[in-house]
Amino acid sequence: MNTEWADADRLADLREALVVAGDRASVAVEAPYTGEQIASIPDGTEADAAAAYERARDAQAEWAERPVAERVAVLDRYAERVLDARDSLLDLAQLETGKSRRDAVEEVLDVAATASHYANVAPDLLESERRGGAVPGLTKTTVHRHPVGVVGVVSPWNYPITLAVSDALPALAAGNAVVLKPAEQTTHTALLARRLLVDAGLPPDLLCVVPGEGARAGAAVVDRADYVCFTGSTAAGREVAAQAGRNLVDCSLELGGKNPLLVLDDADPEAAAEGAARACFANAGQLCVSTERLYVHDAVYEDFRDAFVGEVRDRRLGAGFDYAADVGSLQSAAQLRKTARHVTDAVERGASVLAGGRERSDLGPYFHEPTILADVTPEMAVHDEETFGPVVSLYRVESADEAVARANDSDYGLNASVWTEDTDRGERVARRVQCGTVNVNEGYVATWASLDAPMGGVGDSGIGRRHGDDGLLKYTESQTVAVQRGPRIDTGPLPTGLWARAMTTGTRLLSKLPGWAR
Ligand code: NAD
């Protein structure tokens, strides 16, 4: 394979940074473009997670004492390093995931933008803040933000650069250390992203990587965390939430989706088709926010369908470490199996295939064509289950109300998209869709790349948010310090009855003061 990383010694060199002691079982890592094994990683244990937290806790105590400006300077330098190392990162991410280079480059840009964003906003967010006191003028109340300690991050393989480090960056800016358990298939990519962070000046023990399977290494990392940031499937997210609950620590869970895209009667069908093709098939559909359900108004249905089929048929599939392909491979045999199962099940139950529909083993073992299904009915698995692959179902609707109702008829609520020529109407419709992010005249990038705004899901798509102020403040404990001057807020020398009457009058007067509650 034509990449600098198809070299066992270079991958072994990256693994030197892993926190693993002694002999461990190994987990095979393969290159999805060919199906060949390229390396194996150690399967981390409880002892490895314990060692990682010990190191991380020691490093965190000193890091938290550093001025915020010093901490965010590392993030600023990191943004530069990531952009400088773009091609190396892309090669390794492609090697481990089989994605197209076009899809991989979004990750590099995202990480650099996230680092710069939190470098800019962290100093203000972390500043101690005066708040309204109990008795105006007499109670001086201040809220301080302390790091929670060590954050456990568990990440999936589909965006191996972004999801391994982007959630760690605000945690580090807030003065925490991080223990990361990356997906077993993409551990080397996570290690390269971490190496660049250390090159940018991060003390190495502030980001410790524990490799291995989710059920053991992942669970061991979750069990010791002061805060858990998990990205992955809804099933694993429930386990993680239960574990966090038992330990009484907070968590954010960024989980799956069955994301709808609504084409309203006044939409430009060509523009909507072009946007929908990107929204459905970016990263070969292995994207938490990608579209799997299309609700198209009767008035534009035929025009949209024909333009969409054309867009999808034009997409170039291929394996390669250049920008020639639009769509790459699926990441694993399991991903291909699930995709093929959804298509076969739907076709056997009467769905029609408007484009794609076939595995493409001529290109590589896990390739599957971008696929459009019509005539999909509720008993088909693809109707409600997340495929997390390149398959979308097209439905005709009679009105915007029907589109909204059907979009909302899902256990998930991650991301949605609305297409219309009237953007005011688009915003109104968007607010009725029960998803954490909704894009108007765009598939997913507009909300995801609005780094200043929160991103996350409702229902089975998770709890908590990344990005925005929430994406950093969730890694802090707020502490309220109130200094009372003058008379204390209790009965003092007064008889209790008199005190109660005085306080009743006082409370009536105070509640009329503008801003008293603040
Ligand atoms: P997964 O849940 O199997 O694995 C994700 C990570 O969790 C891996 O590192 C895995 O080893 C670990 N893990 C698994 N079980 C665990 C457990 N019990 N305790 C601790 N860690 C555990 O998911 P996947 O198949 O790798 O990723 C695909 C899923 O992730 C899809 O459902 C997709 O929608 C979702 N996803 C969501 C987002 C988002 O931001 N909402 C982003 C990417 C992927």
From TrEMBL:
Residues 23-481 form the Aldehyde dehydrogenase domain. Keywords: Oxidoreductase. One of its GO terms (molecular function) is succinate-semialdehyde dehydrogenase (NADP+) activity. The active site is at 254. PANTHER family: ALDEHYDE DEHYDROGENASE-RELATED. Belongs to the aldehyde dehydrogenase family. This is Succinic semialdehyde dehydrogenase. It comes from Halobacterium litoreum.
